[in-house]
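Margin note: ligand = zinc ion.
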Amino acid sequence: MVCLRGTDVTAPFAPVPAVGYNEPTLQWEDFRLMPPNIMNAIGVALQVILALAGAFLFALWISLVIWAFRDIRARTRDVFAQILATLLVLLFTPFLGAGLILYLLLRPKETLAEAYERALEEEALLRDIEQRPVCPNCQRPIQPDWQVCPYCGERLKSPCPHCGKLLALDWAFCPYCGHELFPQPGRAEETLAVGAATLGDRA
Ligand SMILES: [Zn+2]
Ligand SMILES: [Zn+2]
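Resulting structure:
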């Protein structure tokens, strides 16, 4: 019969019958007295656990290196920086994760996709500002449906004599009704007369 505490082979140990006797905890002596096959089994189990833990840590390390390589490639096109970041994680992560922590502190804040998106947004904003209509005379902002600049009186648009829609001054045709605004380039007088009638400010 296998006894865990090995009390069956402890001839030198005298039983301690005493008042308030407590069950003693396991001591090294107890392990030494175990049968060798149990010691072997425990040793093998420990080895397996250590091997599994080692394999897990190794896999974790390699995974972190791969992750860092992918992450830095998403953040910079600089090959030197990519190699440096990957080496940093590869060489220093085994020291309590120092390489990974350093990489997370030093890596570029934005990914390339994020930077591209931000550039697009800025460009759109800039274009929006540039395309905001201004008075050609005083450069103040105007609305697209104004006929006259309210600040300086500059004529901005004129209504089509045929359909009444507001047209730019240099258009030759009304895009809404197809009316020819300046017919026959040879007849300047008529054109002028039409222009005067159209604008209404020369009549
Ligand atoms: Zn103006
Ligand atoms: Zn028209």
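The pocket of zinc ion (ligand 2) is lined by residues 160, 162-163, 165, 174, 176-177, 179 (CB under 6 Å).
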